[in-house]
Amino acid sequence: LTIIFKNFQECVDQKMYHAETDELPAAFADGSKNGGDRHGANTLRVVEKVPGQHVEIQARYIGTTIVVRQVGRYLTFAVRMPEEVVNSVEEGDDQDLYLCLHGCPANQRIDFRNFKARSAEAQSTGRPRSTAAQGFTYQSAKAKCKERLPVEDLYFQSCVFDLLSSGDINFTMAAYYAFEDVKMLHSNSKRYHIYEKNSFLNNAPQRGKDFLSLLLLNVLAVLLWIECCTAHL
């Protein structure tokens, strides 16, 4: 995961943050923890919350907060960003904020209803599941996810899907932390729970003077994009 903060007026120098599995640094790539030597350097900083597990990048000069976590062997991240920043993409540079503007590409989305139906059919006919997912049926995956996520929203459904498809218990915590990040980043408690019919990833960006576009990527999206994910802010 690579995040580049561009040189901004007399405020901050260009900075790059780079994280990999088992390497979640508490500083930018040049070893610094703020935006350099300029007047507004402290409006950009890296804050280590839990060593090796949880880092927060605060870019106050553009009203943006980025949360990066390592859960098991996987990286997850969440971004809270003003609509004006999301929409200020330079012409020809829209690929950098593709996920913010358009959500996951259609050819990289999985229909959970069909996946659940196939899992139920395989269970009813006695067909063996993949070795990666051994140990979880749809019902047992739901029960496990309920331990951390009692509301059956998209975070819960993501947890169930990841357990069924991988069998990796770490995905339970990934979905849980994604929801915790929502509660920390989003100012409207009524929008903490996201349901399929109004998923903001499919509708962003939305309109509103004070609206803050909130990008929360589940682990599946991160895994699909991790090899080529570079965000420019």
Automatic annotation (TrEMBL):
Biological process according to GO: BMP signaling pathway
Cellular component, GO annotation: plasma membrane
The protein, known as: Repulsive guidance molecule A-like
Start and end residues of each Repulsive guidance molecule C-terminal domain: 1-187
Molecular function as annotated in GO: coreceptor activity
One Pfam family named in its UniProt record: RGM_C
Superkingdom, taxonomy of origin: Eukaryota
